[in-house]
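sry for the spam today, last one i promise. struct tokens for design, 605 residues
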């Protein structure tokens, strides 16, 4: 949420910054700006709207210089506008800052600065940072930033540049991510590795309260101003993985990557004895055996994956599981004992609410494990252990491949815990065998893309949708509804199928399509009855099923998915729902990868 990128080296900074912002656009896209250190001072260009507006402005008036900072914004304080766009500059225009996060005590600082005569130009919380740095500037930018940081409360990743210090950039982080890219005679700072990877594979993930000074070399200091060494790591993925390739949208690319991404999440983690090997959990078997309760905290799509995990862990291991919205968990007084294991799930590993839930659980003494996709992310680093998804970078704002990888990893966790308790070797082996087939089965479902396009065309103009599922597929119904809401601006609700009669049934008519997930499990007949109830009220049905025969008159359209174990059906049933949402959104002319009002990596509360 908000993307920052900065460059210092010997190349044209403008191009590197704009290309970098393009890679970060999923973090916010209501305004953008760059500030470049020129021969005669700082030069600033800011525009409202998507990045293309900034690109157009820079084409008309290009900036030259080899050092600069850039930002793509998701508004928190102050409406999207040019004055509120970053970078923000000091009153004399000699210092500029980009910021990701929220300065919680900005109004106190602002009043104090106003009393000292500072005139604010924007409504943002960020502007206080640049005025503070300016106030403390006595010829040493690093010192001024360091002093300013002591006044700030809240979450931030920032980069500061000054007209008076050629070639110098100062970055700092507390709560919001900031990655340093170490190139050959050049350096990058960015909110994540996506803008860096095409220039260098070498990165340093800054820790909270780190400040980094770039001046031909780099120096990292901690809050006590002592120099610290941080490991230089190699980025795991390539520049191609953050490019769209031949796909029209990142979301479609990521949907089609799922046979591979699920395979990557499984790789090396299934053992012949019908259990899972998850080295990163950092818990010995004795500790895993003594767990009496599991809590999973997450947001958005990760929350729905967690709901599937709840069913899996309870069924296979018998351990009671509660799934909580991270945003609720952090402000409750949850009951945590030394036998409670807490999982936090986050694709980005940076979601502020999930990070806060993690800290709350740790504070109360729980062992907290993470299920993250982004290596080196804040959540991955603050947890006691965990499992990476290995799904590769997810750029589309609407999460797709992360969901299937999260469910895959949760299945492995359930299997591991289950085999230590009530799941037999035989059953464990059956699950492993079925899991191994999932990637190819997803490939089969992707072949239904054209059929799903036809269905999308038929229903694209509807304004309301209902998604129904039971058991393992109830969370999938929630996820299907979320996908449609996020990218097509259609109102959609997910419901447990049997709950329909307690409310949503009142809404059913020919204008409100119902998507029903109807696998041939123990509840199949009951779901068929729910479909009868929809039909009896003139409703139209799109069914997702693994039944051999199609569902005849009960469904207007039937999408047939391959058969797997019932507990694994979410890994398959979600794929047609992702494609349906995608095609409907495209046909409605919606911006699929950067949907209205949303952003990825939500680093604010
Ligand atoms: C945002 C994104 C969602 C995502 C959620 C949680 O709302 O738009 O796609 O599911 O954040 O993100 P996380 O990175 O924690 O999984």
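last one done:
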């Amino acid at each position: 949420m908000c993307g920052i990128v900065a460059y210092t080296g010997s190349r044209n900074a403008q191009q590197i910054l704009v290309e970098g912002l393009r890679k970060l656009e999923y973090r916010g896209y209501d305004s953008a700006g760059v500030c470049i250190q020129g021969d005669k001072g700082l030069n600033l260009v800011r525009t409202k709207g998507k990045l293309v507006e900034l690109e157009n402005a820079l084409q008309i008036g290009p900036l030259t210089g080899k050092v600069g900072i850039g930002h793509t914004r998701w508004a928190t304080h102050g409406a999207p506008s040019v004055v509120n766009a970053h970078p923000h500059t000091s009153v004399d225009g000699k210092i500029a800052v980009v910021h990701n996060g929220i300065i919680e005590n900005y109004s106190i600082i602002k009043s104090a600065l106003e009393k000292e005569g500072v005139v604010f130009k924007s409504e943002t919380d960020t502007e206080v940072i640049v005025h503070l740095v300016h106030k403390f500037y006595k010829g040493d930018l690093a010192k001024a930033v360091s002093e300013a940081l002591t006044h700030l409360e809240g979450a931030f990743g920032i980069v500061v540049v000054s007209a008076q210090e050629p070639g110098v950039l100062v970055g700092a982080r507390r709560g919001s991510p900031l990655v340093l890219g170490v190139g050959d005679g050049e350096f990058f700072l960015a909110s994540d590795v996506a803008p860096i990877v095409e220039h260098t594979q070498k990165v340093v993930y800054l820790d909270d309260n780190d400040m980094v000074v770039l001046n031909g070399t780099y120096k990292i200091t901690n809050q006590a101003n002592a120099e610290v060494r941080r490991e230089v790591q190699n980025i795991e993925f390539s520049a191609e993985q953050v490019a769209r390739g031949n796909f029209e949208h990142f979301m479609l690319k990521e949907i089609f990557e799922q046979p591979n991404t699920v395979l990557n999440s499984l790789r090396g983690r299934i053992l012949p004895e019908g259990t899972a090997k998850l080295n990163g959990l950092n818990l010995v078997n004795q500790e895993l055996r003594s767990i009496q309760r599991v809590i999973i905290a997450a947001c958005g799509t990760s929350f729905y994956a967690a709901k599937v995990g709840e069913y899996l862990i309870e069924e296979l291991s018998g351990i009671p599981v509660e799934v909580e919205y991270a945003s609720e968990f952090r402000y409750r007084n949850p009951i945590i004992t030394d036998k409670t294991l807490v999982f936090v799930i986050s694709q980005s590993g940076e979601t502020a609410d999930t990070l806060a839930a993690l800290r709350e659980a740790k504070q109360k003494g729980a062992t907290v494990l993470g299920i993250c996709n982004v290596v080196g992310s804040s959540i991955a680093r603050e947890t006691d252990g965990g499992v990476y998804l290995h799904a590769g970078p997810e750029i589309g704002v609407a999460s797709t491949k992360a969901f299937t990888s999260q469910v895959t990893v949760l299945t492995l966790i359930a299997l591991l815990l289950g085999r230590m308790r009530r799941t037999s070797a035989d059953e464990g082996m059956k699950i492993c065998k079925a899991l191994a087939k999932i990637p190819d089965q997803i490939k089969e479902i992707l072949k239904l893309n054209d059929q799903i396009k036809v269905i999308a065309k038929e229903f694209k103009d509807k304004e309301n949708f209902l998604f129904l599922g039971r058991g393992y597929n109830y969370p999938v119904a929630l996820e299907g509804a979320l996908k449609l809401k996020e990218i097509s601006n259609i109102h959609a609700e997910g419901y447990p199928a049997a709950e329909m009669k307690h409310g949503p049934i009142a809404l059913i008519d020919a204008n409100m399509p119902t998507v029903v997930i109807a696998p041939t499990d123990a509840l199949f007949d009951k779901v068929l009855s729910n479909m009868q109830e929809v039909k009896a009220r003139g409703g139209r049905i799109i069914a997702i099923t693994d039944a051999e025969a199609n569902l005849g008159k009960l469904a207007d359209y039937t999408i047939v998915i391959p058969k797997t174990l019932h507990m694994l059906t979410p890994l398959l049933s979600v794929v047609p729902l992702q494609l349906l949402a995608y095609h409907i959104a495209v046909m409605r002319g919606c911006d699929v990868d950067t949907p209205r009002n949303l952003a990825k990596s939500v680093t604010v509360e």
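Residues 425-446 form the longest helix (22 residues). ok im logging off now
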